[in-house]
Amino acid sequence: MSFVLKNILSFFASALLVLLTVSALYIDIAWLHDGINETSITEIMQEVMLAAIAFLLLRHGYREREMRQGAFLIAGFFSCMLIREMDFLFDEIRHGAWVWFALVAALSSIGYCLTRPRDTVRQLARFMRHPSYGMMFSGLLCILVFSRLFGMHILWEQVMEEGYNRLVKNMVEEGVEFFGYALCLSSVGWYLLNNER
Fold first, then answer.
1. What's the pLDDT tens digit per position in 150-184?
2. String of b and e for 116-136 (b: at least 16 CB within 10 Å)?
3. pTM (2 d.p.)
4. 20 vs 27: CA distance, rounded Å
5. At 162, phi and psi to the nearest 5?
6. Cα distances (Å, whole numbers) of residue 8 to 87, 126, 186, 191, 193
7. What's the pLDDT tens digit per position in 70-120?
8. Which helix (H) or strand (E) holds 103?
9. Nearest to residue 29, comparing CAs of 41, 46, 44, 16?
């Protein structure tokens, strides 16, 4: 019974995250009329989701020794995504400075995992066997592939012709990306719900 209840709760928590994504877009467009810029609610919520994913995975790695390397590696990946998402902040230091911070995060997590490569591979395989991995896989496809391809301005220029509106293109692209982040956060929550003591 608790298994069924946990999964029902996971669905409603995920639905709430999706509702938050659409709400943030609506607030940016309809209430604030500021579009979707680097400091919009949409962008801030995306960064909060990425930070939550990285934090939850780091915490899980500290708590669960048998998943430490795998959790740290995945957390490092999402930390790099967070750093990239916050490039506007790092641009205050120097344009493109985010790359160096992301490189430190990537090398730190990879370097740590290389100390026990067999454990890392085994732990990643364990995570990939969990049903929540399918959701993360889908989320990453949304973020890294579909949002980039679907957000190509040449596509939107063809659709809208003379009425091309960059805000519409940005809203769709950011909305798809935001949905992908919601899927990844839901995936991590679902995994932890079933694997934390």
1. 988 888 888 888 888 888 888 888 899 999 999 99
2. eeebbeebbeebeeeebbebb
3. 0.90
4. 10
5. -65, -20
6. 37, 23, 13, 14, 12
7. 999 999 999 999 999 998 888 888 888 899 999 999 999 999 999 999 999
8. helix 98-114
9. 41
pLDDT at 128: 95
Nearest to 97 by CA among 111, 87, 110: 87
Residue with tokens 């230091």: 93
* d(C-alpha 115, C-alpha 119), whole Å: 9
The number of beta carbons lying within 10 Å of the beta carbon of residue 189 is 20
Q: Which two tokens stand for residue 21?
A: 């994504």
Alpha carbon distance 149, 130 (integer Å): 29
Residue with tokens 């049903």: 131
φ and ψ at residue 14, rounded to 5 degrees: -65, -40
Compute the distance between CA of residue 175 and CA of residue 168 in angstroms, rounded to an integer: 10
